[in-house]
Amino acid sequence: MKNENANCFIKKQYKQTIKRKVFLISALILLLIGIIGFASTIGVIDFTIKEVYYVILNHFFPNSFEVNATAEKVVWGIRLPRICLGILAGIGLGIAGAVMQGILRNPLASPYTLGVSSGAGFGAAVAITLGAGFVGGEYLIIGNAFLGALMSSAFILILSSKKGTTPESMLLAGIALMYLFSASVALLQYFASDEAAKEVTFWLIGSLSYANWEKVISTAIVVTITTPFIMWKARDLNIIIAGDDTAKSLGLEVMRIRVVLMVLASLVTASIVCFTGTIGFIGLVAPHMTRMFIGGDNRFVFPVSALLGGVLLSVADMIAITVMKPIIIPIGIVTAFMGVPLFLYLIIRRKRDYW
Amino acid sequence: MKLVVQGLRFDYTSSPVLEDIDMELDPGEIVGVIGPNGAGKSTLIKCVDRILHPEGDMKLNGVDMKKMNRMELAKCMGYVPQSPDITFPSTVLDTVLMGRRPHSSWHFTEKDIDKALEALEMMGVSNFAFRDYNEISGGQKQRVIIARAIAQETGILLLDEPTSNLDIKHQISLMDVLDMLVKNLNISVIMTIHDLNIAARYSQRLLLMSNGRIVAAGNPLSVLNTENIRKYYGVEALVKEENDIPYIIPLKAV
């Protein structure tokens, strides 16, 4: 009887923790909706939140709201694509970081440390300095960056298929790759014209300045298609984290799951960095923050890390716009300045209890 | 469940780690795998669970195990490794719930949670249900991962050194739980074990391994004699007997 009561209590507590996590996810979604409205008011011209929401709502319910023509132009044409791309980039990097850390069972894994972002940087640098690429015209840089990112992930995946490769050696290979690409970019910059070198630097820092609806939709499509599949494999990744032998004995095809998730995470990263440049730290910090709040169940870590990534990146963007107004500093600089102390703080103050 | 292994061979490189392994496991029996370090005991367990891919025939209730997919096998066999660490935070309850993966894919049902709680209770770790697995002691971790295998509800349990991190009281209570599972649920157990006295007391049969081969097999009295202990462990020992169960008093290394 006593044990039955104890089990009932544990069950009740377990269900409550699940409810709290679902509540956190809902709260983060609402926060992001709020951020979209608030961030749209910030810029050279100030608008009220009411004006901003009227513009947004008018696009969903035409001719239902009285819209200020300037607000329509600035908010819908310039600010919203930037904000949406920022949120989508945060969501994508947040989930890709969580997936990569899980696959490699290493808290240091992220699109950055696995060389995926620097691969994209190298691709972009080749396009900018040499004008060489696989696709031409306005897609030259984007196409090269995308291919560069995929090249890095392909290398990591080929390595992972070799017998005896451990998650640790995959991470070390990623770090080596990151240095290789950094050196190659530096070489390209050294011989490039001043203007091209500056453009490469600007691209490497990461920026949302070139956002438009086309880029938002492309990124949204990739994120929307890949996320359900990543989520579907979340519980399996929980088990892989407990070790390959355990995962195999529990019925999982470990290598297949690892490869599929790595491809999806790389695809998400590539589709973001090719439009925004290499925005660091979100993919590293968001999963860490998430695990410190809610523990390690990836069924909740993935959505929370994604949404937290979106929040962090949109907050960073607001800082980038306002801190030296009217100059907008590249968002990559802000995420690094925000990310480093946040990361150190999280490491020092490791929470012992999880939800 | 009946397991039959014939002509099992496994190598990592060219030299075999396991060779000429023939063994059987009947429903409701505990088989202890003993032998000095490096004899191939853990490798044998991993080969039986097909975590590694050996050559040879392995049949489960007459079905060729090579034709079974991993998930089918996971419903028949549970594996308990030597207390592994988990890189990221995972509560004790979540760790035990992993064992339900062969029965449910994404969402945990009421039955999954009930089975996990039963297993936690059986192993005496219910009190830690919401503690982080990485922050409990080695012995507690060992009991948690055994609870995970119990929650898996399989006919065969493969345990790699299940008592290695436990104090004497917990060694006995763990073995009593395994004994109870074997008797009440007709589960079969193969366990690698270094403690010869525990192995002798709880196993119906022992397999003594050396250099990747089974060098002696049979009931504990026939396997654990002074010659075998001297020859394969390099230890001079006294072997006493009580109620047909041998117990060993090691004297000196040879």
Q: Main traits of this protein?
A:
heterodimer, A: 355 residues, mainly alpha, ABC transporter involved in vitamin B12 uptake, BtuC, 14 helices, globular, B: 254 residues, alpha/beta, 6-stranded mixed beta sheet, 4-stranded antiparallel beta sheet, 9 helices, 12 strands, 33% helix
Query: How many domains would you count in the coordinates of chain A?
Result: 1
- The helix-strand sequence of chain B is EEEHEEHEHHHEHEHEEHHEE
Which class of secondary structure composition applies to the elements of chain A? mainly alpha
Spatial strand arrangement across the major sheet of chain B: 6-7-8-3-9-10
**Number of helices, counting only DSSP H or I runs of 4 residues or more of chain A:** 14
Q: Biggest sheet of chain A: strands, sense, closure? A: none
Average pLDDT of chain B works out at 91
Could you say which overall geometry of chain A the principal axes of the C-alpha atoms support? globular
Uncertain regions spanning at least 5 consecutive residues of chain B: none
Low-confidence spans of chain A: none
Rg measurement of chain A, Å: 21 Å
Total strands of chain A: the figure is 0
Work out the strand percent of chain B.
25-35%
What would you call the quaternary organization? heterodimer
The largest inter-chain interface, given as chain pair and residues per side, is: A-B, 38 and 44 residues
Structural class of the helix and strand makeup of chain B?
Answer: alpha/beta
Distance between the termini of chain B: 41 Å
Rg of chain B computed from alpha carbons, rounded to a whole number of angstroms: 18 Å
How far is the first residue's CA from the last residue's CA of chain A? Answer: 27 Å
